Amino acid sequence: MGRMRWIDTLEAAAAEKLPEAVYRYFRQGSAGGVSVGEATAAWSAYRFRPRVLNDVSTIDLSTTVLGVPVDSPILVAPSTLHRMADPDGEIAMARGVGAARSALGVSSNAGTTFAELGATGVPWWLQIYVVRNREITRRMLDAAVEGGARAVVLTVDTPVVGRKEDDGDTVWGLVKPGQLLANLPDGDWTDDDLAKADDLNPDVIGWLAERTGLPVVVKGVLRGDDAKRCADAGAAGIIVSNHGGRQLDGSIPTAQALPEVAEAVAGTGLEVYVDGGIRRGEHILTALALGARAVFVGRPALWALTVGSSAGVARLLTDLSAELDHSMRLIGHSTPSSLTPDLVTTPHLN
Length: 350
Ligand code: FNR
Known about the structure:
eight-stranded parallel β-sheet, alpha/beta, binds ligand FNR, 13% strand, TIM Barrel, globular
């Protein structure tokens, strides 16, 4: 047996520790599992065209994400049920992120209050689902602003929740009070109040910006024309995402969507991010070259939280950064902002 990369050991180690339904929930994709299954391979399908004889003695991975300084362009995606991975849930996740001087997205379904998150001092962005009863959304936004959220991430790929065919959803039977929806405002809400709004249009971007005074990032865009609509409506950022293959199954891999989106909004000042299947430094290098300012990781952060709590999350981020640093030297570039699309190609797809 050869030496196994630590990141590659995480999922199996997490599966040992987690209740089976939780593991399956974290891991699941929607419907036939096409998108979740091909995400990582789509990144690995790119090939590099490295430059040589460039001075790469000093690599500087630091950047800003909507004004927030980070040590490396690797952030943690919003996800749920952190308290099932670690008793301290989102707080442990935030501490790990903070130790790596990164930033995180926090799900509007989080099991930790925004005030508690704010008290960690770690930069965080609120991920929001706009629900049918806008009073709920308004109060949640206000609480997030109060808790120091630095941006609002509007998830737009979920007018309805993706259909799951495995038994990951049995997890909902295990959820204890306080592990989920810690930020749902008090009230006698009906299922209809809480259902996701399926009548949104780009005006919601301006509404969110006005309500919060924060930059708005639209998550779940896979097309250049949609990215342009978001830019025109005042978005500050886009996350190219297919929700980790949990929404419309068969949606194109983000590795394929990113170049079109980056090109569509080039010159607008809008920041482009990407997530989905990113597991290695080389995948991050590819994403940055294709126009992403930073990437998000989803499931690997959940595995790392399960296995090693905040120290595990910090190690995941620093290990990925070390891989990125190494591959930057090999491609002949010392800063993320100097990477350009000509550094990657897909010969076997042309
Ligand atoms: C998610 N994701 C997600 N996205 C979002 O906008 N709001 C949410 O509440 C959640 N919840 C959630 C739960 C779990 C268990 C997972 C795995 C994912 C999607 C997430 O933000 C991100 O888009 C993907 O996870 C990225 O893909 P990878 O890195 O997991 O392959």
